[in-house]
């Protein structure tokens, strides 16, 4: 059954707010930031056929739509505060909206972030736009521009499984049973590393989330910081499922996969143990995969001491890929 705009907002997305001064229902939401905190704001737009497949379950899509935005807050070391949701869709149907809202709001509740407004409209394909707002103490935000020569380079979690799932959907690879279920979940239901981002404040020198592929996202940090990097591909964390693939597929998924939404960050080498303790406090595994070097060294990736040819490996580009 198709719903009208205000009916669907009232039925699925209007909730009483606890932290905001005013939420859904007026022309503007009213926020109540913690005194002395800076506001961290990020926006992501997900388009069907470009950022997600039409076969994804609505509850997973709701989860992912918010998760990719929370991942940006995590990369900034910001505590979630509020978010807005904009939906454009061909039809407003209960069978989609009910589970979508359930997945979205369950993750929101898990991170204490409130839905405070947005917009809905009809359109040719499903598009989901979310803007998140978080808080961070002045001078404590994690930035892309703080990496320094000698810093260690770290990543959280495991990399490459989401790309592996995409290649199965494309027909380039074959996985069945539990293996496919695992990588599909990695692609459709990522875990935003909010707790890790908070734990790394004051320890990490720079950070970014891995959304478009490690090479591309690390490149943003290197350019912003004016440095180079050396990476050891053998040190990259990967699942047993990815480790069972060919070296070429492992390299592709680990370096250019994207859609991981893990944190890539740098920290002074002398703070190695602090990084491990902070990650443990956030119940998140982290791995040191390289070091920051002088800018003239550029970006070098080795595997068991042998340089890896990076020709043909590139990050996701929303207008070219």
TrEMBL record:
Molecular function per GO: thiamine-phosphate kinase activity
| Binding, ATP | 118-119, 144, 211
Recorded E.C. number(s)?
2.7.4.16
Instruction: Tell me the CDD domains matching this sequence.
Output: ThiL
Pfam families registered for this protein in UniProt: AIRS, AIRS_C
Which residue ranges does the record assign to the PurM-like N-terminal domain? 25-136
Q: Which reaction does it catalyse?
A: thiamine phosphate + ATP = thiamine diphosphate + ADP
Which amino acids does the record list as binding substrate?
Answer: 51, 259, 316
Residues annotated to bind Mg(2+) 3: 27, 72, 209
Positions annotated to bind Mg(2+) 2: 44, 72
What family is this? Belongs to the thiamine-monophosphate kinase family.
What does it do? Answer: Catalyzes the ATP-dependent phosphorylation of thiamine-monophosphate (TMP) to form thiamine-pyrophosphate (TPP), the active form of vitamin B1.
Additional note from the record: Reaction mechanism of ThiL seems to utilize a direct, inline transfer of the gamma-phosphate of ATP to TMP rather than a phosphorylated enzyme intermediate.
Task: Indicate what this protein is called per its UniProt record.
Answer: Thiamine-monophosphate kinase
Q: Which gene encodes it?
A: thiL
